[in-house]
Write a structure and sequence with these properties.
The chain is mainly α and 120 residues long. The protein has helices at 2-29, 36-63, 71-87, 96-119. The chain has one domain (2-119). Helix 1 (2-29) packs antiparallel against helix 2.
């Protein structure tokens, strides 16, 4: 049950962060895309990372499984990446859309990599 939810939620985390990243990159060039909804959506997309990692930890503890090599590493790196992206928002104020755009795509890539490592 939890493993199926963890596997399905991975796609939610990957696709939502991909869309947030593409939206932010487009907003860098196209002013009308710079809306409050972008930031709300980006926050929700990044929150899906925390949900995914939490589901994974619950699954491993409840079902007494062993982490696939590097699978958990990518999940915790994604959490750290969210924190780093957030911490740089003021320093890169003039390029905040690029920061969150490439950050969202990086989070997407970490999710894909975690899935590939988890299948091996």
């Amino acid at each position: 049950m939890i493993s199926e939810l963890h596997n399905s939620w991975a796609w939610v985390a990957i696709l939502s962060n991909a869309l947030a990243g593409v939206w932010a990159l487009a907003a860098h060039k196209i002013m009308p895309l710079r809306t409050r909804a972008l930031w709300w959506y980006t926050g929700v997309a990044q929150f899906t990372i925390f949900v995914q990692v939490t589901l994974g930890v619950i699954m491993v503890n409840k079902e007494k499984l062993e982490f696939p090599a590097f699978h958990a590493f990518y999940g915790f790196v994604a959490i750290m990446a969210v924190a780093i992206i957030y911490s740089y928002r003021l320093q890169l104020k003039s390029r905040v859309y690029l920061l969150y755009g490439f950050g969202g795509l990086f989070l997407m890539g970490l999710g894909i990599r975690a899935m590939l490592v988890g299948q091996a």
